[in-house]
Structures are given as C-alpha cells and as structure tokens.
Amino acid sequence: MNFLNLGLGELLGLMGAVSAGVVALYLLDRSKRKQLVSTLRFWAIADVRTELKHRRRIQQPWSLILQLVSLALLLIAIAGPQLGVFDVNGRDHVLVLDTSAWMGSRAGQALLMDQAKASARAYLRSLPNRDRVMLVRADALATPATAFESNRGTVEEAIQQSQPGASALNLRLAFEFADRAQKLQAQRPGEIVFVGAGRVAEEEAALSPLPSNLRVVSVGTAQENIGIRKVGMRRSTADPDSWDIFVAVRNYGTRARTADLGLQFSKAPAGVRRLTLRPGTEEQATFTYRERAAGLLEVRLNVQDSFPQDDRVVVQLPPLVTSRVLIYSNEPQSLRPLFALNSQVEAVFESPERFDPNVKEGVIVLDRFNPPVLPRTSAIWIEPPAAGSPIPVRAKITQASLEKWHPETPLGAGLRTKDVTLESAEVFVSSTGDIVVAEAGGGPVILARAPSTGGPKQVVIGFHPARPSMKYELATPLLIANVLRWMLPGNYRRWEVQAGTVGTVTVPIEANTNPAQIHVLDESNRPLPFTLDADSLHFFSGAPGTVRVQVGDREMVYSLTLPDVAEAVWRAPADVRKGIPRAAAVEAGVTVLWPWLAVLGGLGLLADWLLFGRSRAFRLRAAKMAAPLMQWRKAS
Amino acid sequence: MPEPLLETPLLEKLERLTIQWQKSLPGLVGGHNTSRFAGAGQEFLDHRHFHHGDDLRAVNWRAFLRLEKLFLKMFQLEPRIPVRIMVDISKSMDTGAANKFDYARRLAAALCYVGLVRLDSICLQPFSGKLHDAFLVSGGRHRFQPASNYLAALKSDGRTNFLECARQFISEYPQRGLVLVISDFLDDGECEKPLQYLADFGHELILVQVWADEDREPPWEGELELEDAESGQKVELAFDPDARAQYTAAFDEYAQHVRTVALRNNGRYIGVPTSVPIEQAIFGAMVNSGAVA
C-alpha cells in the first residue's frame, strides 16, 4: 500500500485528522443555533419538530458513524490496497518511441507521431505506479529521453516533446540499446515496448533475434508515398558551363503512380519529366542545364501523397569561377591555343610595352621579356632573359634533349614526352623548396617556386612551348593546364552537389588518398568525424544541413535536407506481444481493491445524505429505521 | 445631532402627495378631503327648508322671490380631520437584520411630512404595551423638524398589547379621525379585536404591516434555539425547508387576516418588507392602496 509516499503511521495520522475534522464539522452542523425572533407564534404553526429537553450530546450518531466509515473507505481506496503477491519494487520498462522521419507523415487528420504519442501515453497509464519507465527516441540513433523514471509526469512530458526526426529508423540499434539499458540499469527488467510505424531499411525487415520481452504497439496503416531519394549535380565534363543533374525518385506505396518531376532554377523553369513508377521501385531522371551563375535549384515532385516532406529539394549551385590571365607577348597567336581555349580562364593578350605593374589578381604570362618591375601577382615566365630572370639562369643550351619530367609533382602530373629535342633552352639554378618539373642539359628547365610566406607564385619555363619541338606534343597544353591549376586552385576545383538524406553518407574517393588531404566540414566549418575504406569515405549526419567534403581539388557539397524514408515495413513476428495491455493483465495475480472500496465509500456517503440529509421525508424514514436500533441499544 | 430620518430629495418628492381618507368625518373647516356633512364650505351641496335660527345669509332669495318660500342653501364641508399615526415601538420591532423599528420610524416621518405639507394636524402616537407620550404637530412643513427629532429619539421597549392601547386611544382621542397603525402586528394576543374597536368607534384605519424578510421566511436551518424578543420565551426545535414553507404560509395567512380586518371596516392595508426602500414603499404600495395620492 502506498499513499502518496506516506507510511502506514502517517496514513493513520492523516485519517485521524480527517476524522477529527469530520466530527468537528458534524458537531458544528448539528449544534443548536441561537436566534432572536419577533414572535414564536408561527413556529408552532409550522409543525416543526421540537426536541426533548434531554438532548444527547451527539445527535444522529448513526449519521456520524456512517460518514466516518465512508471517509475511511475512501481514504483506503486512495491508498490503492491490493490482495495477492505484492510487488514492492516494480519493474523497469523501456519505451522505444519511433521518431523517424516517416512518423511525420499524415494519417487522416493527424500525424503518425500524434498517434504514437497517444499510444505511448496509454501504455504508461496501464502500468502500475511503482514501475519505472525509460523513454528512448529511436531514429537512426537511439537517444534516451529519460532515465528509468517513476514520475509519470516526466515521462509524459518527454513523450509530448518528441518530434519526428529526419533520419530513418534503425530498429536493431534501438533494441540493442534498450536491452543494454535494462541489463545495466534496471533493477527488475520489464518490457521493451516499441511504439511506432516500424518503417525500416530493407535489410532490417526481417530483424532477428528480437528481445524476448518485446511488446509492439503499431501505429498507422499502409500509406501511399512517392518521394525524391537523391539529387546529384556536377559540372559537365564536356561543357563546364552546364550542369548534369541526376534525380532518383522512389515509389514507397503499393500501387503504380505517375508523377511530374520539375526543375526550377531561381524560380525559372529548368526542366520537367513525367515518371511512372511501379510499387517499390526507384526511377532515375537526368537533366542538363546550362548555367554559369550561382542560384537555387529546386527539384519538385508534383504529387499528392501522405508524406510531402520528400517531394521537394532546394540546393544552392555555385557559380563557374573564371580568372583573368594577362599574357604579354609579341607573338600572341602562338600562345593563344594554350590559354584561350581554357574555359576556366579569361585570356587577355597585350604587347610587352603595355605591361601594367599594378595588376594584383589573376596570372601574368611574360613571353621572353623582363618587366621593369617584378609582377605583384603569380607569373609564368617563358624563356626569360637571363639578366632579369626571377630565378637565376645557369646556362643556355641548344639542341638539348628533354631528359626528364617529374610526374610526382602536381605540375608535372601526367606529363611525358619521348625523344624531344629542344631547339634552345635555359637551365635554371634551383634552390631549396623549388619544384623541378622538367630537366634538360643536366639541370631544371621548368621550375616552380612558391614562397612559404604566401606571396605570388612563379613558374619559369626555359623554352618556348610553341616552338616546333613542343608545339605538337600533348604535354604542352597539359603543362599549361597543370601550371594554371597550381596557381589558381579555386578555378579548377571540381564541384559536385548532392541532395540526399541524413544519416550515414558514403562518398567514393580515389584509392590511397592521403587522409591529410580530406576535410569533412559542416555548415559552421567545423570538422566532422569520418572513416575511410579502400575507396570510400563515410560520415554521419544526424540532423538536416550541409556538409562539405574536400578531397584534393574535389569539393563535394552534400545538402542533407531530404528526410530518410526507409523502404520496408517491419512486421513483428506472431509470438511477440502486441497492443496496449490492460491494467489488470499487467497486475496478473493481484486483486485491486480500490474500486470496490471507493464504491462502498460513495454509497455510504449517499446513504447518509438520503437518510440523514436535509430532506424531511428521508429524515422521518431514518427515524423509523433507527427506532429498532435504539431499542436494541437501550436493551443492551 | 441625530442623523435625519429622511433625506431631502425624498422630502421633495413627498410634497406632491396627500393623505387620503374615505370616511366623511366631522371636523373644522380647512381640510382637503370632502365630507358628506354640510357646513361652511365652498361647493354647493343641496337645499333644505329654512328653520328658525338658520343663518339668513344662506337663504336662497331668488327661490323666495319666485316661490315665496324660504329655502336654505347647504354647502359641502371640507373638514380638517385629525391624522393620528400609531407607531409600534415594542421590542419585536427591533429584531432582524433590517431593523423594522427604524423602518417604521422613517415611514411615520414620511407620512407626517406628507400631512404637514397639506396643513393636516398630525399626532404621532408611539405604543407598545400602552400608549406612550404623543407628539402633536401641525402648521405646515416647517414644523416637520421637531417631529423628525421626536421620532429619531424614540427607543424600542415593552411588549405589544393592542387591546390596552386601543382602550387608551379611544378614551384619549374622542374625536374621530384617520388612524394609521405602523406595526408588525406580532403580539401574543389577537390584534383583530382591538383594531375592530377602533373602527367601530368611528376611526378610519390604515394598517401598515412591516416585516423583516426573516420574519416571513427564516433563512436558518437545522437545530435552532429561538427566543421571543418580547416575552423572552425560548424554544428549541429543528427547522428544515418543509417547515419553512409551512412557516411562511402561516405568516401569509396572518397577514391576510390583518388585511381583512382593515378592508372589512373600509380601511386600507399595506404590507411592506423592510427590504423594500422607503421611497418605493410609499410611491408603490401606499399609493396603490389609496392611503396617499
């Protein structure tokens, strides 16, 4: 027996105080009231019952006894007495509430989440007061919302505050967590109760083994939904001005659906496609959209279903970045094929006489001349005169064989030639920190220097690349491209934008990528933890947002705003307990007495009111009923 | 200085009222209610034969010239009737949350002022077991203040004895007139017989019964120990809603009995609970009954 955490002595004391109050009120109510009146003539006429002068101290004692007994019964009823095996400690249950993204779907007028909350509260009410409950919110992660709590208000508040998340349900993780919590923290493990729709990934649809003490309270029914699974965008390899857009759409329902997939870039229509999807299948659509500027790309699925959150995606596309390359040359036509065809640079040709020393951005190309002052931005020196070369010229050679490329350097990556004899070339003097790209005549003929202090980069090329010996070599444009990429890394960064679902994201990368070159950053530029496989990178994002993955010159932007809707629905096996138990079932073997005591107490008070209340008719009847009792009392 | 019984705005409203009576009573000239008695009035009433000793000024000389007989013109008398206001000051009047004694004094003051405005002669006669010292006032409204002070100075005392009071009243006031009795009429004896004496003697009765709400419908329930305010007699009893209903019925029956006495003798009856404001009682119940107009 537990009465508001009072012991038996305290309960008896409280009962005594209440009884004393009742007796006092009784005596006060039954005490005579003195009143001065104008006359007594009408009181006799009114046929009022005049009492005997020998009044007893307590009038209507049976009324008092009946009231006291009734109140005692009610107090004991509140105490909740039970007959049978009394479980003092209670049990500890884990209530796993499904807060996956699918719980935000609409079922009739309410959300699935609202139904789940109602079921969870109903389960709470069915438990004995001494049982403790831990609430665990389950989506991709299992997050405990409360410890094992005996205070129902705390648990109900936590249930009320639960909201659908953005990730899919990981049922295995939730059950493992609940099982572990019961083993480590529970005094007497009770049930693990799962309340939710149970929409899980396909590999979890036949989940086993299950906890032996599992109970499942399912909410929701089969609902039709069709939604966007993934959107990917990257600059076209053939045309950097264009975006290749890839959209994956899945039909989660049980019947075939037709939906219009539309694209809008900055509110302007960019494409539309009609898709017909069979039940449980995924369709993909690709679009090509030519755009250099930045803007918002909206992918919308025009369909009516129960889960509209996955029918629309908005991602921000970066602009196509170009930089200015100023080429001072007396023979611009020889260099034009090397620079003007590159879409990531804007090539401007000027004569050496118009050299501008104030240029601070972009790249300057100096074709066989020395400017009066050193450039203030990165520069490519082609066969600079020895007198003013930024890197000292050791020797000038003729008819020299191009001996070696250094493909291990970023500037020499992918470069190779065979049997090339340079008409003439300058051999430079390298120093520490310089990058040697090519060698001839026993020394570097292409050298790069990047000051450690972050100043302008310099590349000197000891021969003219447009001379016949190199003019038709594939290495020549690649060399220029490597140099520009090294000088303007931002222009040559490869952008990939993907809109997907939260949770675990796998990024394909090149094998043997140096982990130091990998950065996974969230919206606030804070690094996120990641793991590496042989050729893939994994990271986890539990909340909607944007994650940037930088691998070398690649930058992949993951806009994780789509809710993760799992493909399958987990059905509990037949031997698992289902539904909300009745309170009596929970208390198997225990007879609850409080309803009977409450009814008896209420009947007692009602009888007192009827027999001894204000009604004269009942009062007279009570007098008749009490007469034999009084005679018996006198006789005794 | 005691607080005035009536406020000035109420007095201003009372100035348009007149105390009315129905009987033709003899009295001095100068009243405002007509009488069937002939006398020195202004309105012509009838002719009669001249008798020796009649006033020659009243002979209709035109009729004499035409008929050669003496006829005397008679005029309708408008006598000045004494108005006597009997105020019950017994202890029973001093019970209840809303004091009947105060109410009765204010009601008497209002009627006194109405009479004075019409130049009536007013006699304020307090009574309980016997008649107490009366206060006679006449001569217009400017004499109201002494009357008001007299009423304010009255104290409740004694047991009501209507029979003794009626006997004394008849012996002290042989001239018939209008008698207003303001009382709760709750004496131990029967008030019917004394009131009938007064009516039989020729007085016109206006009975004003004042009661407190608890006099008519006691609000208490349960075990009561009641004490009679006048006799001090005590009784213990149990009281419930059914008994209250019977009590109220008995009270109403008694009030109807008092009313019957008044109406049977061409008088008027006004019953007012103290919960009704004085102004509403005068301009409502009393005007409707015809006691004042």
Description:
The complex is a heterodimer of chains A (636) and B (293). By secondary structure, chain A is an alpha/beta fold. Chain A contains 12 helices and 37 strands. Chain A has 4 domains: 8-81 and 594-635, no CATH class; 92-223 and 569-591, von Willebrand factor, type A domain (Rossmann fold, 3-Layer(aba) Sandwich), CATH 3.40.50.410; 323-487, Class I glutamine amidotransferase (GATase) domain (Rossmann fold), CATH 3.40.50; 493-554. In chain A, the strands form 8 sheets. Chain A has a 9-stranded mixed beta sheet with strand order 20-19-21-22-27-26-25-23-24. In chain A, strands 16-13-12-28-34-33-30 form a 7-stranded mixed beta sheet, with no helix packed on it. The longest helix of chain A is centred in the first third of the chain and has 23 residues, at 8-30. Chain B folds into 2 domains: 8-25 and 80-289, Rossmann fold; 38-76, no CATH class. Helices cover 35% and strands 24% of the residues of chain B. Chain B has 9 helices and 13 strands. The two termini of chain B are 32 Å apart. The A-B interface holds A 29-43, 45-51, 53, 55, 59, 614, 616, 619 and B 92-93, 95-96, 100, 184, 186-188, 212, 214-215, 218, 220-231, 233, 235-244, 246-247, 250-251, 254.
Looking at this protein, list some descriptive labels:
heterodimer; A: 636 residues; alpha/beta; Rossmann fold; 4 domains; nine-stranded mixed β-sheet; elongated; B: 293 residues; six-stranded mixed β-sheet; three-stranded antiparallel β-sheet; 9 helices; 24% strand
